[in-house]
Amino acid sequence: LGRPGCVTMAMITIAAVIFLLTGLGENPANNWRQKLSITEFQVLGNTITWKIGLPEIYSGQIWRLFTPAFIHIGPIHFLFNMMWLFDLGGMIENRKGAVFLTFFILLAGIVSNLGQFSTPESLGHMLGYGPNFGGMSGVVYALFGYAWMKGKYDPGDGIGVPSSTVIIMVGWFVLCFTPILPNVANAAHALGLGTGAAWGYISAIKWRR
User: Fold this and answer.
1) Fewest CB atoms within 10 Å of the CB: 18, 62, 135, 166?
2) What's the pTM?
3) CB under 8 Å to 99, separation ≥6 — which residues?
4) Secondary structure (3-state) at 130
5) Which residues carry out catalysis?
6) C-beta neighbour count of 25 within 10 angstroms
7) pLDDT digits (tens, 9 = 90+) for 104-137
8) What is the biggest distance separating any 2 CA atoms in the chain, rounded to whole angstroms?
């Protein structure tokens, strides 16, 4: 479908710059990481503390609703997400345009970030808990869910993913819920996948009528 468009490449470029500014995401106390997280937090041993109610966002720092998507913890996390963003984002941008992809990514990022942060502590062992999270995974799963449903129910639109990609993405989604991969933002994955799949399915059914 051609080369990835400007929005896809801009997202990858911004994520790469932030990855470097945050010191590869390894230090939670990094100044850039704190400014871009959904809310500032402190790590004391195995305990994370933060102010209740997202005070920074309510004071006007609305970028925090989305910017956790640019924070990546280590090279593997960064490269994995950028690879899928390049592939899926590029495909969707070439078919639907820059404005569509921009709105889609912003919505998916905000929904997955807020959902991840809002996870009850009682489910934290399974879904992740608190503000110490980041990554484009929620957006990537939204892009995947959208492309999956479009390819299944509206293949004429030219958007879809091969069965091998479905196996990899669904398999990884399930694997992240196991003790093999601890401390994963599973709520962001689930909300991103649900948002993208619902959008893809509804739009596919709408155009088939």
Assistant:
1) 62
2) 0.96
3) none
4) coil
5) 137, 189
6) 23
7) 999 999 999 999 999 998 998 899 989 999 999 9
8) 57
